[in-house]
Amino acid sequence: MVKTSRRALVLIAAALLVTFGGAHAAEPRRIPVANGGALEVQVPDGWAADVQGGGATSAPTVQLTAPGRDFAMTMAPIAIPPSAGKPSPERIRAAVERLAASPEIAARTENPSVAVRELGGPQASGYYFSVTDKTWKAGSDDYHYMTQGALVVGGTVAVNFIFLSNTAPGPDLDAALDLLRSARNAP
Description:
Layout: H1 6-21, E1 26-32, E2 38-44, E3 48-53, E4 60-65, E5 71-79, H2 89-100, H3 103-108, E6 116-120, E7 124-132, E8 145-153, E9 157-165, H4 171-181, E10 184-186
Antiparallel strand pairs: 1-2, 2-10, 3-4, 4-5, 5-9, 6-7, 7-8, 8-9
């Protein structure tokens, strides 16, 4: 039998706290989608997901916030009609690229070349971009940083999203992207 010292146990416990301490628990949230069942996402602990609108023929809007944090996120899940077929990754990327290159974005972004990045999860695939608003003024109602994109979940639900913050991209944006990666179709 191996004898474990008290000091070794303390070091193991500290290592586990460091390893798992940064992880955020998530809670599944079901969002009804018109004619498309539901979208389920893993909402980080401490975040609130307020579903507004939506019905038999209209898409809901989901507002995500967290008390004490400096961000706002909006998602709009839309059922893809069966007759439309599943949008190809190229088509989704092209739509996000057009959005990133729009005159409105180009006029306000610090960097004239906006990188479009891939976003994927077990059932979700899409693209997004992040920009910094060069016209932002401290104390204004505008946001300094924006991440925006679109993804398709399970081939039957399209999700448009925008994440706004006055804090440089970091843990909250990472958690928002993880929430999107977790998206799945739910009956």
